[in-house]
Amino acid sequence: MFRFTKAPTYLLLSALLSSSLPATASDANRLPEMGTTAASTLTIDKELEYGDAYMRILSASQPVINDPLLSDYVQSLGHKLVASADDVRTPFHFFLIQNPEINAFAFFGGYVAIHSGLFLHAKTESELASVMAHEIAHVTQRHLARKMEADAKKTPLSTAALIGSLLLTIAAPEAGIAAIHATTAANIQGHINFTRSNEKEADRIGIKTLAKAGFDAHAMPRFFGRLADQYRYTSKLPAMLLTHPLPESRVTDSRMRARNYPTVILPPSERYLLARSRIVARNANFSEASSLNWLNRELKKAAPNRRKELNYGKALVYLDNGKYKQAHQLLDPLLASEPNNLFFIDAATDLDLYQKQYDRAISRLTTALKGNPNSNVLRLNLANVYLESGKYQQSIQILNRYTYDHPKDTNGWTLLAKNYAKLGNRSGELAALGELLALRAQWDKAINNYTQAAQIAKLGSMDQARYDARIDQLRFERQRFKALQK
Fold first, then answer.
1. How far is it, in rounded angstroms, from Cα 258 to Cα 138?
2. Is the predicted pLDDT of residue 374 greater than 90, yes or no?
3. What is the spatial distance between Cα 68 and Cα 414, in angstroms, rounded to a whole number?
4. Could you say which residues bind Zn(2+) here (predicted)?
5. Which of 21, 55, 381, 433 lies 20 to 30 angstroms, CA to CA, from 71?
6. pTM of the complete model
7. 55-59, 72-76, 114-118, 159-163, range with the lowest pLDDT
């Protein structure tokens, strides 16, 4: 699959800073008292606005991984958990950030971010799911909004400072995050019990969600325990242990809670292992030698029936470094054994593109789409192959529908802009690039792009009318976004 790179920066939206209080087996499943559920401080609608604003800022400033295969995997896993969660009030959106640190965080509007480094430390899908279930619980229990409400009852000035920090983050991300940290630090003693209870709730409710979704509830204490042991004597803690401290009491608590559920022995998840290998090959910032060393070490320990996922990772490394013969030797038997596996189809398509075997790639993808017509991975791959082979109109036809269905996916707009550029359709290119700018909260630039597109388009044409209508929409969105800063 085509890949887009983005320079990282140091904006970080952390999960709630906290530690944990001991729990007993008797209270392991008791749900928290929700009270007013923070409605008097921040409505659900306002949370959704903040979440959308944060996501646009994040897209402009963090190396978000827009790999369709990996996005499809984390969305599928996340929504499997959400389907078993209680108190779901918002839609959920799961995404990956290319960062070697072990971390995950949630923010307003049901957005849950997972660092790619987490895949290198979670040994099973249940362990990865346990971290995601914990973050889902932070959202469903509205911990940030409830903290703001608790502040309001004690001191309105403290709440005003926190809200001001959140608004400042939207206006100037780096300054805003620093202000939140300062506000939290200044009031940390007064809120310590409340934030501890947040982590306690997130662990307890996360384990319940994990079990209801069919995962091993014991994966959470197992993962926690391994992290605590690994970093017990180090002075430099990973990001996850800074934002989610793991004192011995919290590890003990999670073990006690997990005992309320039976141990579930699950077969290794092929999709998780394939996603993990893909991250090692393409999103771990490893050199070719380092990626191969990592995969070869795992191969020595792997059971015979689990080696194909690691060979898939090696094939990607060879493919991306121009070693097509070695890539073929590994990919051909994989595709023969599982001809409908999207990971293998995607890699084989990449290999065809590198070798300019366009007809073979088109044949493979159109055949696969007959059996899986709604696959985003296959649709984007086929659009990309049409683009690379000079069949721009066919590519545009797919992408017009795709961007309508998925207007917040940068992949569709990026490919659409490239197609229009190849055709010399400047107005179409400007409009597609305008959508990318809007997704990064660069409203003025987005409006300017559409204004230029409308000026270029034929007078009175449907395109010109569409561009003018979009300008009005973007102005409204800009106004709403700026209202959050006031």
1. 19
2. yes
3. 13
4. 134, 138, 199
5. 433
6. 0.83
7. 159-163
Catalytic residues: 135, 203
Quickly list H helices, 155-301: 156-171, 173-186, 188-212, 219-230, 239-243, 248-258, 270-282, 288-301
Beta bridge partners of 113: 95, 105
429 exposure class (CB count in 10 Å sphere: 0-12, 13-18, 19+): buried
Structure tokens at 141: 């229990």
Angle at 87 between CA 84 and CA 89, to 5 degrees: 105
Length of the chain: 486
Residue with tokens 């141990």: 263
331 has pLDDT over 90: yes
Query: Which tokens sit at 213?
Result: 């979704």
Q: Rounded to whole angstroms, how far apart are CA atoms 342 and 399?
A: 19
Task: State the binding site.
Answer: 134, 138, 199
Q: Quote the CA–CA distance of 399 and 375 in Å, as a whole number.
A: 13
Q: For the chain, which residues make up each domain, given as ranges? A: 25-258
Cβ neighbours around 457 below 10 Å, total: 22
Placement of tokens 């094939």 in the chain: 315
Between the alpha carbon of residue 175 and those of residues 18, 187, 439, 471, the distances in Å are 22, 19, 21, 30
